[in-house]
Amino acid sequence: MEDPSIHDAPSPADASAAAEASPSEVEALRRQLDEKQDRLLRALAEADNVRRRAQRDREEYVKYANEALLRDLIPVLDNLDRALEAARRRGDAASVVAGVELIQRDFLKVLERAGVTRYSALGQPFDPARHEAVGRVVRPDAAPNTVVGEQLPGYLLHGRVLRAALVVVAAAPDEDAA
Questions:
Q1: In this structure, is residue 81 part of a structural domain?
Q2: pTM over 0.70
């Protein structure tokens, strides 16, 4: 037996009920339908506006996400400019070195505020997740696979490797002969 609600066509009973509806009832139903359609269109338009606004907010957030970091870096650049100007006037290498060291400390402080920390790999066991080997050297005073030299320090961003340290790793004497 078929379910009569499956069919789209109105049953004869429904058709006779609709024919018996007064014109004022039909008009009231039309108004209700128009109001519901209007509300549906407005809700769809509002949902679309919310989606577009959220997309625009995300794009703006990404565009200006580094604003605070960059604002902190500008004074470091100003200090570097002042140090260069002073070095040009004086020609004294010692004062240039002292000025650059101050700027380096300022720069490292800015990085730390942004969650970046510098790490040294010297003396540590080689870890391919934190170190990038750029050479191997036989060192009888160091255990094999120990970092014995560092060309560049590594950096972490909130504990995640931002840049691996570039290192030289100790090799066992027999490894070098092979």
A1: yes
A2: no
Q: Do the domain assignments include residue 79? A: yes
Could you tell me if residue 119 is inside a domain? yes
pLDDT 10s digits, 91-104: 777 878 888 888 89
What would you report as the CA-atom Rg of the chain, rounded to the nearest whole angstrom? 37
Q: What is the pLDDT of residues 124-167, one digit of tens each?
A: 999 999 999 999 999 888 999 999 999 999 999 999 999 999 99
In whole angstroms, give the CA distance from residue 94 to residue 71. 29
Give the strands of the sheet with 154-157, arranged side by side.
116-119, 154-157, 160-163
CB contact set of 137 (below 8 Å; sequence gap of 6+): 148, 149, 168, 169, 170, 171
Using DSSP's 3-state secondary structure scheme, residue 43 falls into helix
Which amino acid appears at position 55 of this protein? Q
Asked if 173 and 138 touch (Cβ cutoff 8 Å), the reply is: yes
